[in-house]
From TrEMBL:
<dbReference type="Pfam" id="PF13439">
    <property type="entry name" value="Glyco_transf_4"/>
</dbReference>
<keyword id="KW-0808">Transferase</keyword>
<dbReference type="GO" id="GO:0009103">
    <property type="term" value="P:lipopolysaccharide biosynthetic process"/>
</dbReference>
<dbReference type="Pfam" id="PF00534">
    <property type="entry name" value="Glycos_transf_1"/>
</dbReference>
<dbReference type="InterPro" id="IPR001296">
    <property type="entry name" value="Glyco_trans_1"/>
</dbReference>
<dbReference type="GO" id="GO:0016757">
    <property type="term" value="F:glycosyltransferase activity"/>
</dbReference>
<protein>
    <submittedName>
        <fullName>Glycosyltransferase family 4 protein</fullName>
    </submittedName>
</protein>
<dbReference type="InterPro" id="IPR028098">
    <property type="entry name" value="Glyco_trans_4-like_N"/>
</dbReference>
């Protein structure tokens, strides 16, 4: 079976979608005998220069194509030149590729599925435009896809109406060996945050929480590791200084996996007060390391807690109670740390990429066994 995964960003770009696709395609190639390949854009957003047109990343053949326009909706019609010969197209995220391949379906007639990866509501930017688009254009595009796979239960709620009748939920997995059991063995008051430096991550809110914690106990420290996105490391330093924690926060730009594992060994806690996550990859990876999560009250994080995660949920509109809970938990770690560590590792172990990859292959087999979808253009007014 030849499957082409299509996404706007892939390695060496760093992020939840990129990491998810790398693990999925690798598992499909190495474990399941699927000829999984990747097509993506030829540059990393926010970085100068072009990437090679052809490449191999971790054993996965990669094709990169030119694009123009906005990073929010990059225009790359050359995708049509590279999809022949594949049994199935697996489109990742709701963006130009999702719409363009749907509306050109009468020309290429490939069997397609799509994974949601949070839709396109990660930030409040252009929210009104996004909402109108999601109610008008997206439902039409959906008709060209044999299956829409929600990557989280919050995504499933979001797509329940527009993808009715073809929606299925397969939560993402994590690399179970990447950071397993890496957290500090000595209980401490260090919080690690890692991921892209993006507005929707609300790192400024985490800075405010740390400032509150330090007022009661100056041992609290924060490590922020990741890549520039719509915020830079300098932006974060400025925000931290404004909160009064400039001297107690360390920023580590672009850490390797090995370096990030070393940072986990310095910390007992993981912090993410994000306004939106499709799945919450970093939180699950942090739990696999044995870190205690400090999380916002969004749906993916609530679900983690319901599954048994041991941590603290923070109300972004009222930080004080959460700060008290975090300090109380930190004070108890000498007695409870090992039990909490084991509990969080156990919850994270349920998210395994090999199992996720098998579920996707079953979806591929199901949709390839059925007739191809009708053209989105022809069915838009029929249903």
């Amino acid at each position: 079976m030849k499957v082409l995964h299509i996404c706007r960003q892939f390695s060496p770009s760093v992020g939840g979608l990129e990491d998810s696709l790398l693990n999925l395609a690798r598992s499909q190639r190495q474990k399941l005998g699927v000829d999984a390949q990747v097509l993506t854009l030829d540059s990393v957003f926010g970085r100068p220069g072009k990437l090679p047109h052809r490449d191999v990343v971790d054993g996965i053949p990669v094709t990169r194509i030119p694009w123009r326009g906005s990073t929010r909706y990059p225009f790359a019609p050359d995708v049509l030149r590279h999809i022949r010969g594949f049994d199935l197209l697996h489109v990742h995220a709701i963006d130009f590729f999702f719409d363009f391949l749907a509306w050109t379906w009468p020309l290429h007639r490939r069997t397609m599925i799509a994974s949601t990866h949070g839709g396109f509501f990660h930030t409040g930017a252009l929210r009104r435009v996004k909402e109108v688009w999601f109610r008008t254009i997206t439902p039409v595009s959906v008709h060209a896809y044999s299956r829409i796979v929600a990557c989280s239960y919050s995504d499933a709620d979001m797509f329940a109406t527009v993808a009715k009748g073809r929606l299925q939920t397969i939560e993402n997995g994590i690399n179970q060996t990447r950071f397993r059991d890496a957290a500090s063995r000595t209980p401490n008051r260090t919080i690690l945050a890692f991921g892209r430096f993006a507005v929707h991550k609300r790192l400024g809110l985490l800075f405010e929480l740390v400032a509150r914690l330090r007022r009661d106990n100056p041992q609290w420290k924060l490590i922020v590791a990741g890549q520039d996105s719509n915020l830079t490391a300098d932006d974060l330093r400025q925000q931290a200084r404004a909160c009064g924690i400039g001297d107690s926060m360390r920023i580590v730009p672009g850490p390797s996996d090995a370096a990030l594992r070393d940072l986990m060994a310095e910390a007992s806690f993981f912090g993410c007060l994000s306004a939106h996550e499709g799945f919450g990859l970093a939180a699950v990876e942090a739990m696999s390391a044995g870190l205690v999560p400090i999380l916002s009250t969004i749906t993916p994080f609530v679900r983690l807690m319901q599954q048994g995660a041991a941590g603290v949920m923070i109300d972004p509109d009222n930080l004080a109670p959460g700060a008290r809970d975090v300090e109380a938990l930190a004070a108890s770690l000498p007695e409870t740390g090992e039990a909490l560590r084991a509990r969080n590792i156990d919850v994270a172990s349920r998210y395994d990429w090999n199992s996720v990859a098998q579920e996707y292959v079953r979806v591929y087999q199901q949709v390839l066994g059925h007739s191809r979808p009708r053209s989105a253009m022809l069915t838009a007014g029929a249903e």
